[in-house]
Amino acid sequence: MADSGDRSEAATDADTGAGTDTAADLAWLPAIPASAGALIFDRKGCLLILKPTYKSGWTIPGGVMEADGETPWDACRREVREECGLEVQAGRLACVDFRKPRPGRPGGMRFLFDCGVFTDAALEGVVLQADEISEYKIAKLHTALELLRGPIRRRVRAACDSPVTVYLEEGRPVSQVH
Questions:
Q1: What pLDDT band is residue 18 in, cutting at 50, 70 and 90?
Q2: Angle at CA of residue 61, ends 123 and 69, nearest 5°
Q3: Most distant CA pair in the chain, distance
Q4: 61 pLDDT higher than 80
Q5: Contact (Cβ atoms closer than 8 angstroms) between residue 63 and residue 35
Q6: Domains of the chain
Q7: Could you report the per-residue pLDDT of 63-112, keeping only the tens digit for each?
Q8: What is the distance between the alpha carbons of residues 99 and 109, in angstroms, rounded to a whole number?
Q9: Rg (CA), the chain
Q10: By the 8 A CB rule, do 104 and 97 touch?
Q11: What is the Cα–Cα distance from 112 to 63, expressed in whole angstroms?
């Protein structure tokens, strides 16, 4: 078995495309699911939230990154387009949240982008992905936070309370990270 120095070198080679590592050589790398979500506001500061058909509660536009190398930003834009028919043109990384795996839950990285203010006309043109989303609301932030599920609520609250990108673990700030 290779020592950790060899692992670091293999990871560097894998990241740069150099070397000849096979899948078996890199089997020790963790598989960490990742998802991306979007904060979309109207001109009054109200937040777009969605009611999914496949789980309880409300959420924001977003979903799992494709395993084909899709970036978090591309996943955010794709999911918004698929779930509500809006085109995201620009955004700011607002939050990264690490969730530990637990039995029945894979954990992973959650990226949250502030996609800014959309015009009334754009928001009136929302077209829902009917098999995944049953309805949407553009709600005042305090109302949206009451409706959002726990982990998403903490992520959205932290992102909206900070002018800079926030790092969370399990939806909570890490005191050593500023």
A1: low
A2: 125
A3: 60
A4: yes
A5: yes
A6: 32-172 (3.90.79.10)
A7: 999 989 999 999 999 999 999 999 999 999 999 999 998 998 889 999 99
A8: 6
A9: 18
A10: no
A11: 10
Tens of pLDDT, residue by residue over 120-147, are: 999 999 999 999 999 999 999 999 999 9
This prediction's pTM = 0.84
Q: How far apart are CA 73 and CA 98, in angstroms?
A: 17
- In order of 35, 52, 78, 119, the CA distances from 63 in angstroms are 5, 11, 9, 23
d(CA 126, CA 136): 9
